[in-house]
Amino acid sequence: xxxxxxxxxxxxxxxxxxxxxxxxxxxxxxxxxxxxxxxxxxxxxxxxxxxxxxxxxxxxxxxxxxxxxxxxxxxxxxxxxxxxxxxxxxxxxxxxxxxxxxxxxxxxxxxxxxxxxxxxxxxxxxxxxxxxxxxxxxxxxxxxxxxxxxxxxxxxxxxxxxxxxxxxxxxxxxxxxxxxxxxxxxxxxxxxxxxxxxxxxxxxxxxxxxxxxxxxxxxxxxxxxxxxxxxxxxxxxxxxxxxxxxxxxxxxxxxxxxxxxxxxxxxxxxxxxxxxxxxxxxxxxxxxxxxxxxxxxxxxxxxxxxxxxxxxxxxxxxxxxxxxxxxxxxxxxxxxxxxxxxxxxxxxxxxxxxxxxxxxxx
Length: 362
Known about the structure:
Elements: H1 10-13, H2 19-24, E1 77-79, E2 84-86, H3 88-95, E3 100-105, H4 110-126, E4 131-139, H5 143-152, H6 155-161, H7 172-184, E5 189-193, H8 199-205, H9 212-218, H10 225-238, H11 248-270, E6 277-283, H12 293-300, E7 309-316, H13 327-332, E8 342-346
Parallel strand pairs: 3-6, 3-7, 4-5, 4-6, 7-8
Antiparallel strand pairs: 1-2, 1-8
Helix pairs in contact: 3-4, 4-7, 6-7, 8-11, 10-11, 11-12
C-alpha cells in the first residue's frame, strides 16, 4: 500500500476513517488497485428468504437477536427493522416510494458497484420516483464538466474525461455500471462532495474556510457531542492511531461538512423541476442514519418521515467459520445498531493489512 502522507490527494486524506476502516467498512483513505480473487456471488433471488424462525424488533434502537438460523452470506439481503431476509424484488418494493435512497459501498469492491447499478435500475424501472444520482466521487467544482461530458460522451469515456483514476479512485470500469444505469433511465448525474482545494484550509481553519455561498447552503451547526465522539474515535482507529489527538476534531469537522455537502446535493436534486428524489453513491460510513448524510437531510428537508429515507449498505460477509458473526455484529460495526435499514451481503476481496508501512508525514 502506498504510504499515506500529507501530500496524498486531499479527499483520500480526509476520508472518514483511514485504511483500517477502508478494509472493514468501505471508506478508503489510500485507494489502490487490488488483484481481485472472487468466488461467484450468490444471487439474491437464490437466497433463502422469510425463514419462519426469525424474530422481529422494530423499536427505534434496534436490538437484533436470533433472527434466523441462516448466518449472513454473500447474496443475502437483510431488512434490519423487519428482522428478516428478503429477495431483491421485495427490497425494491419496500423502498420504492422513498425520496432518498442511500447506497453504501466499499470503494474497491466491484461487486458493490454492480449491485448499486442493479438496484438503481430496478428502482428506476419501478416508476415510483425519478431520482438523480449523487456521487461522493465527484466534487462540486466538477459539476459543469460533468454536465458537459455526460451530454457528449459515452459512459466508457466519461471516467477519463473526469480524471477519475488520476484522483485516486478505483478503476472507472468498476463504477461504469452505475453510470450506465443512470443513462439507461435518463437520470441526472450530480457531483456531491466538497471541492478538494478547501479540505486543507478546513483542517486548519474549520468551517470558516468554506466559501460564503457553500457555507450558506450547508448552514453547518456545531457537531452534536455524540457524533463528535464517534467520528473522533473512528478517524483515530481508521488511521491506525497515527493521527495526533489534537487533529481529530479538525478531521471530524471536515467529515461532518462532507456529509452535509452530500445531503445538500441530494436535497437540491430531489427538489428540482425534473426530479423528485435522489440516490447517493458513497462509502458506507457516509450513509448512516443518525450520524452522516441522513442526519443532514433532516435539517434540509424538514418534513421527512422515516419512510422517505432508505439506507442500503453493501457489506462484505466474513469468511465462513464455526462461530459466524450475526446480524447485530455487522450492524454494530457501523455505530448505532439502527444506522442501516438493509444489509446486502457480498463476497470479500483479497486485501493486505491496511496499517502495514503506514507513515504520516508533515
